[in-house]
Design brief:
- By secondary structure, this protein is α+β, with helices and mostly antiparallel strands.
- The protein contains four helices and eleven strands.
- Its cofactor is Mn(2+); Mg(2+).
Length: 205
């Protein structure tokens, strides 16, 4: 196969993320509601009965299923299931920047409005409680920032004899910034805080 034939196979190819099929894909909705004539952001507290991250604060969302036509549809579906509302109560769903996680996940965040928030009836099997925070609080409050050091730890049977430097190979270490917002005793951190901070940065542009 000559170079021209090789290049012809790549012509008009649309690039994607390498290994995209193996990534676990999730979608979440950052919900805006009107409360006391003021815009609030709604959060969930994950049920303590859940195996994954019980008690953590998050946005409505979950794993993208084969039945979901798009990440946006997944975010809407998960929100209806977790908050006990219908799709007609979810308006103006717009995409935010998606996140490619080093832990093999892609998260597709969206922002949207929830109308008639008095109709919300959280699914108790997934949601311990819901609460809201006035948007102006986040517009005027910078999150606390802490660093987490991530190190490479090869398995016992790693073939050190195949790499230059062997067991003394200079692995690249890096750090992850973790953001924390605190409001009335509630701690918002992790991916939820990163999505929230991104959303606020868009509003402040």
């Amino acid at each position: 196969m000559n170079p021209a034939d090789i290049i012809s196979k790549l012509t008009d190819r649309q690039p994607s993320i390498l290994g995209y099929e193996q990534f676990r894909k999730h979608a979440v909705l950052l919900p805006l509601i009107e409360k006391n004539n003021e815009t609030h952001i709604l959060f969930e507290v994950r049920s303590m009965k859940l195996r994954s991250q019980p008690g953590d604060i998050c946005f409505p969302g979950g794993k993208i299923d084969k039945a979901d036509s798009t990440p946006r549809q997944c975010a809407i579906r998960e929100t209806t299931e977790e908050l006990g509302i219908t799709e007609t109560n979810i308006k103006d769903v717009s995409p935010l920047d998606y996140i490619v996680s080093d832990f093999g996940r892609i998260i597709f965040p969206f922002a949207g409005r929830i109308t008639n928030p008095e109709l919300i009836k959280p699914n108790i099997s997934e949601v311990g409680e819901v609460f809201t925070v006035p948007l102006p609080y986040f517009l005027s409050t910078k999150p606390d920032r802490y660093n987490v050091q991530v190190k490479v730890v090869p398995e016992a049977d790693f073939p050190f004899d195949l790499i230059v430097g062997g067991k003394n190979y200079n692995w690249r270490h890096y750090q992850v910034d973790e953001l924390f917002y605190q409001y009335n005793g509630k701690v918002i951190w992790g991916l939820t805080a990163k999505i929230l901070n991104h959303f606020i940065s868009l509003l402040n542009e």
